[in-house]
Amino acid sequence: xxxxxxxxxxxxxxxxxxxxxxxxxxxxxxxxxxxxxxxxxxxxxxxxxxxxxxxxxxxxxxxxxxxxxxxxxxxxxxxxxxxxxxxxxxxxxxxxxxxxxxxxxxxxxxxxxxxxxxxxxxxxxxxxxxxxxxxxxxxxxxxxxxxxxxxxxxxxxxxxxxxxxxxx
Length: 168
Hints:
mainly alpha; 76% helix
């Protein structure tokens, strides 16, 4: 009974955290990135970084990610002795989170630096190079949203599935 309560509690934390994260990432991509990516290089001045913005997006996503880690690891640990058919639903978010956190600093942060550098005049790139870089960002970011969505759907599936009563 304690294992079920712990797993359910961690799943609620996870679903709420991932739901907020998915919604924020969709807003970031559809509204914010669409604005700064609309007509590079001039539109790059709208990137949400630097002294003109009171909050860096990382200042929002990184603490949220810590909450998400607590939820998914807690759900995985407390739900580990459940049958594989259930356990897979709490394992998928951990895998998707690892994928996101491998690609964010290795793929996205270098692109952000280059795009922001071009938008602030610190890096010189041709218009064609910047258009391609923005396009590459958008494609990769939609893939990141798909991975986040897969983790979220898996968590929703886990929390909406009756908790298995028997040990494996």
